[in-house]
Amino acid sequence: MSDSRPTPVTGWDAAASGSQMADDGPLGRIVRWLYLAGGGIGLLASFVLMVEKIALLADPSYVPTCSLNPVLSCGSVMATPQAAAFGVANPLLGITGFAMLVTAGIALIARFRPPQWFWLALQAGTTFGVLFVHWLIWQSLYSIGALCPYCMVVWAVTIPLFWYTTLHNLERGHLTGRPTGAVLVRFHSFVLALWFMAIIALIAVRFWDYWVTLV
Amino acid sequence: MPKEKIVAGGRAWPSTNVLLTVGIVVFAIIVLGGVLLLGGDDKPRGSSTVPSSVLVNEDSHRITEGGTEVTVVEFLDYQCPACAAYYRNITADVERDYGDRITFVVRNFPLDNHSLALPAAQAAEAAGMQGKFAEMYHALYDNYEQWAVTEDGDQLSDDEDRARAAFDAFAKEIGLDVDQLHTDMASDAVAKRIEADKVDGEKAGVTGTPTLFVNGERFTPSGETFAEVKQQFRDRLDAELAR
């Protein structure tokens, strides 16, 4: 693992300076820290949701800490069939998946240089995550009609986790055998911002009647 | 293997990407904030009053008719959980305690995202054609769990057959001609009444339900709990009655 890297120079600045860049590309640093931070935030949110879910099961009259008003209400979201889409509580999937990402992030920070299949596995996991999250967004907005703050934290971290995994894999050539996606890499955060804005716009429009009452 | 050179790190800062990202975020904040803050200007709020010609028609349904000094108008959606909660916690009590002193008018404002709100409004209006509007209004809210929410009570129902069966049961209990009710529910007259209520609601600046007006002035409670809101509403009524 330490074969071709005699100098432990790390990070973005080092990468920009030359041959090091070839090691993990322009997004390598973003990806490993995102796995740690984003995965950690997602793990925490899933964990809290699971704790709330258990509290709710133990006492059906329990009001979750994130049930703030008619729109921001985890209680009503957690009680729906969509909250256990695969037969088990969704947060269990989150706890499992995000814990794996945190571990991957720490391994990468520790200079682990994974084989291609490792990246493909991350791609598969984050792709599943982002698809699932968008289905949940759809359900939350148009079927359940309420938002659950902790769930939204999960949405917010899953999208960049998927996005940067995909970009990194494209740019490294893990997916197609040769590097691609240069334009996307160049405008990585712009695309991500557009993505977030689109979802925020959907939320704003969907619950407009409620938001205007708060102003 | 020579890697393709990608300009993402170690060049002039800020990059086009950063500028675009900041640009779109600032743009979104301005649009969202602007619409939220300025968008309210086209509808009456605060102390502005809505003329009674908009709020109450000759043939608007009156749940109580206890005097003309104080008129309460509620725009409601029978399936809206907040409306049902208002009914349970506030308006049903107000009806009982103030019914002999105020006029309480209810008008339809079925929201598109409540699929059973329109059939319920039709049932109430059709009952009204047999002179039993208030009875159906009460039946719909008193038995909200039987038609508006799923059987496990977890979410809003979209089971129209179940709801219609419940409406029939209410109709029988009230003593309505059920066949006539069905005919009226599907009639143009009922559709027009509901639509007219919605149009007036929009004129009055109603965007959500329940929206209440006390003598033309929108009731905007600051209370956090139903008990507080109820107290505010009763205080408001007392103040109007004392004038």
UniProtKB/TrEMBL annotation, chain A:
Vitamin K epoxide reductase domain mapped to chain residues: 28-169
The UniProt entry, under Gene3D superfamilies, shows: VKOR domain (1.20.1440.130)
According to the record, the residues making up region (Disordered) are: 1-21
Has keyword Hydrolase?
Answer: no
Going by the UniProt record, its keywords in alphabetical order are: Disulfide bond, Membrane, Oxidoreductase, Quinone, Redox-active center, Transmembrane, Transmembrane helix
Transmembrane residues, as ranges? Answer: 33-51, 88-110, 117-138, 144-164, 185-208
Key word Disulfide bond present in the record?
Answer: yes
> How does this protein sit in the membrane?
Multi-pass membrane protein
> InterPro entries under this entry?
VKOR (IPR012932), VKOR_Actinobacteria (IPR041714), VKOR_sf (IPR038354)
Compartment(s) where it occurs, according to its Swiss-Prot or TrEMBL record: Membrane
Q: Which family does it belong to?
A: Belongs to the VKOR family.
Protein name, UniProt field: Vitamin K epoxide reductase family protein
Q: Which organism is it from?
A: Haloechinothrix salitolerans
Automatic annotation (TrEMBL), chain B:
* Domain Thioredoxin intervals: 44-242
| Signal peptide bounds | none
PROSITE patterns (alphabetical): THIOREDOXIN_2
Q: Which InterPro entries match?
A: Thioredoxin-like_fold (IPR012336), Thioredoxin-like_sf (IPR036249), Thioredoxin_domain (IPR013766)
Keywords noted in UniProt: Disulfide bond, Membrane, Oxidoreductase, Redox-active center, Signal, Transmembrane, Transmembrane helix
Please give the start and end residues of each transmembrane region: 18-38
- The answer on whether this UniProt entry bears the keyword Secreted reads no
Superkingdom, taxonomy of origin: Bacteria
Identify its protein family: Belongs to the thioredoxin family. DsbA subfamily.
Protein name (Swiss-Prot/TrEMBL)? DsbA family protein
Species the sequence originates in: Haloechinothrix salitolerans
